[in-house]
UniProtKB/TrEMBL annotation:
Protein name per the record: Uridine phosphorylase
An individual GO BP term: nucleoside catabolic process
Domain of life: Bacteria
Domain Nucleoside phosphorylase stretches: 3-182
């Protein structure tokens, strides 16, 4: 399980059994444990595609075969509210990390079976869930941010993060089964700089969304392991 924020590893550990912290260096913090009888490793990736790429590469090299990102995103559609989950069925590769691995025509998509198990798990948790295309990018603060967000919103993109494209592309190249579950922390009509601190201070709706994405990912692991 791949959260961005190292602090989110603590919230994952709360629902695991037999937990053990393994390492914490820079943005990379790792904890292992069990959930419903299966082994789970949680590793934070920090912010952005570059650090995510490092985490995915090194985990793949030690034999990890299934990875689910549990991150945060800004919504690009007006019907997506704070705390809603977005499950990425594909991602616009508007980032530098994935571009360093493959030409832009290479698709950034999750593993189909793993995505279906995430959808099923989210439905079982009765989470407000949206499935569709997301966008990965490299900065929240470009001068044309409003215009860029409007462009992708008009093309049906659900939300934006900074890591999913790198996960999907590298996973595809390295034979890793991947999925991405994103918790909405900024609504489409809000400015990021005005509302992102609500998440870090623990806004109730967004923290509930985080809990749901953790449980969704864990239960997706369990059901996928039984396929």
């Amino acid at each position: 399980m791949l959260p961005g924020d190292p602090a989110r590893v603590d919230r994952i550990a709360e629902v695991l059994d037999d937990t053990k912290e393994l390492a914490f260096n820079r943005e990379f913090r790792s904890v292992k444990g069990t959930y419903k009888g299966i082994q789970v490793l949680a590793v934070s990736t920090g912010i952005g595609g570059a650090s995510t790429a490092i985490a995915v590469e090194e985990l793949a090299r030690i034999g990890v075969k299934v990875m689910i990102r549990i991150g945060s995103c800004g919504a690009l559609q007006p019907d997506i509210r704070l705390g809603d989950l977005i499950l990425a069925s594909g991602t616009v590769r508007d980032d530098g990390a994935s571009a360093s691995y493959a030409k832009p025509i290479y698709p950034a998509v999750p593993d189909t079976k793993l995505l279906f198990e995430c959808i099923r798990a989210a439905e079982n948790e009765k989470a407000a869930c949206h499935v569709g295309i997301t966008r990965s990018h490299d900065s929240f603060y470009i001068d044309e941010e409003e215009e860029v967000s409007k462009y992708w919103s008009e093309r049906g993109v659900l939300g934006a993060d900074m890591e999913t494209a790198a996960l999907f592309v590298i996973g595809g190249l390295r034979g890793v089964k991947t999925a991405s579950i994103l918790n909405t922390v900024v609504e489409s009509e809000d400015k990021l700089e005005d509302h992102i601190n609500d998440y870090t201070s623990g806004d109730q709706k967004m923290m509930h969304g985080e809990k749901l994405e953790i449980l969704t990912a864990l239960n997706a692991f369990v059901s996928y392991d039984q396929l």
